[in-house]
């Protein structure tokens, strides 16, 4: 009897293209320790702990009780939400976006980014992606069949220099360049000169630019710009994704949007039309309330994250672990303490959890250039951050005492 060799192998084709999920080991240990009754201070998962603004919740409750709102929605988003996205861009960036064909609602920016990869990528296309970066920036395209060229991106300047060097060596330009500043995981920002150069490169070489601006409102200095402050969306093949997850503490609501070049928006719209009917309509209406309503909640959240950042940097520094202060985002990007550098980021993360009760994300999970670092999400309150610092101080002191024997 004949068998199908395509399903008798260990892994399916696209699954084989994905690396092992490096966070799995750390997450498994965290679950085990908690099951055993250990208190784990969790900086590992970037899941906002702040409440969704009350006026957004009220709008959801009000809308869901209306007749006719619980059926299928529109995959590209209700008209009111696309108009709210356009108003946000006008207010925040002084950029005109046509809500009809330059904006689309997404089920979180992650879904929009992944479906865009499916829409524009042919097998073998080359994508320049930052390393380290949010895993989807690379693996959304890997799943779509692309070849990822990771470019070191601890800073925006390093990334820009790497893009230029890669272009100088390449036989032909890549299909697209991914840009993500403020960066997850590093918290680094890019200045206006960076965007001017990226736009010039994209125009010269006819490259698509994919800008992830998920942390547009979580910043501690100058407000991060949009790429469309430097170029009209129709003068360049570019698209930008925005998420409400962090700005309004709406991570579980799964609401975001993408704006930009009409051709790219049309491609994403077409793919989405086959895959989903859009987010639940009351959630989209509540998202309008978030974008159009009072914005003092955004400033309040920004202050909380800034204070947590300052407490973490100061208290961990006094404990003996120097951590650079991030310019933006809800993350700190920390080099491993010198005495633990030989372990690598995964093993150090496990030691930190077992010995100090502190969970972090291994840097190597964000790319090869992330090895030697860990990411800390600012999702614990100041008291818990100081508690973590005390535990870490004990660990570092005991390690130093052991080494001295």
Question: How would you describe the overall organization of this protein?
Answer:
With 405 residues, the chain is of the alpha/beta class. The chain folds into 2 domains: 5-51 and 297-404, Alpha-Beta Complex (Aspartate Aminotransferase, domain 1); 54-292, Aspartate Aminotransferase, domain 2, CATH 3.40.640.10. 45% of the residues lie in helices and 13% in strands. The strands form 3 sheets. A 7-stranded mixed beta sheet has the order 2-8-7-6-5-3-4, with helices on both faces. It has a 3-stranded antiparallel beta sheet with strand order 9-12-11, covered by helices on one side. Strands 1-10 form a two-stranded parallel ribbon. Helix 9 links the parallel strand 5 and strand 6 (208-212). The chain is globular. The mean pLDDT is 92.
Number of domains: 2
The CATH architecture of the largest domain can be named as 3-Layer(aba) Sandwich
**Unreliable stretches covering 5 or more consecutive residues:** none
By DSSP, the count of extended strands is 12
Choose one word for the global shape.
globular
Total count of helical runs of at least 4 residues = 14
Main β-sheet, spatial strand arrangement: 2-8-7-6-5-3-4
Instruction: Evaluate the radius of gyration.
Output: 22 Å
Question: What is the string of SSEs from the N terminus onward?
Answer: HHHEHHEHEHEHEHEEEHHHEHEEEH
């Amino acid at each position: 009897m004949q068998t199908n060799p395509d399903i008798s192998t260990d892994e399916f084709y696209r699954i084989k293209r994905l690396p092992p999920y490096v966070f799995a080991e750390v997450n498994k240990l965290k679950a085990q320790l908690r099951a055993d009754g250990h208190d784990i201070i969790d900086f590992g998962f970037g899941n906002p702990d702040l409440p969704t603004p009350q006026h957004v919740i009220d709008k959801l409750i009000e809308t869901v009780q209306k007749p006719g709102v619980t059926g299928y929605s529109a995959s590209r988003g209700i008209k009111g939400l696309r108009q709210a996205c356009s108003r946000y861009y006008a207010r925040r960036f002084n950029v005109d976006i046509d809500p009809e064909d330059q904006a689309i609602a997404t089920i979180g920016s992650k879904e929009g980014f992944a479906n865009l990869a499916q829409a524009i990528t042919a097998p073998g296309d080359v994508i320049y992606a930052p390393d380290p970066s949010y895993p989807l920036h690379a693996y959304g395209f890997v799943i779509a069949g692309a070849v990822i060229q990771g470019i070191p991106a601890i800073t925006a300047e390093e990334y820009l220099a790497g893009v230029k060097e890669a272009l100088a060596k390449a036989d032909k330009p890549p299909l697209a360049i991914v840009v993500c500043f403020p960066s997850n995981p590093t918290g680094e920002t890019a200045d206006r000169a960076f965007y001017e150069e990226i736009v010039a490169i994209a125009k010269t070489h006819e490259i698509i630019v994919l800008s992830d601006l998920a942390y547009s409102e979580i910043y501690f200095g100058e407000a991060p710009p949009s790429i469309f402050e430097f170029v009209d969306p129709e003068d360049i093949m570019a698209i930008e994704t925005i998420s409400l997850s962090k700005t309004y503490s709406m991570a579980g609501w799964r609401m975001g949007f993408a704006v930009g070049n009409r051709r790219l928006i049309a491609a994403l719209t077409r793919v989405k039309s086959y895959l989903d009917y859009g987010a639940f309509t009351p959630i989209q209406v509540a998202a309008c309330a978030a974008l159009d309503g009072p914005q003092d909640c955004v400033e309040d959240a920004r202050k909380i994250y800034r204070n947590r950042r300052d407490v973490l940097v100061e208290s961990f520094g006094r404990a003996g672990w120097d951590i650079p202060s991030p310019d933006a985002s809800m993350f700190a990007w920390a080099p491993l303490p010198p005495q633990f550098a030989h372990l690598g980021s995964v093993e150090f993360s496990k030691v930190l959890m077992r010995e100090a009760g502190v969970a972090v994300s291994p840097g190597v999970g964000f790319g090869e250039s992330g090895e030697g670092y860990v990411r800390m999400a600012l999702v614990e309150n100041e008291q818990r951050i100081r508690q973590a610092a005390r535990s870490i101080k004990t660990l570092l002191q005991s390690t130093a005492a052991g080494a001295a024997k």
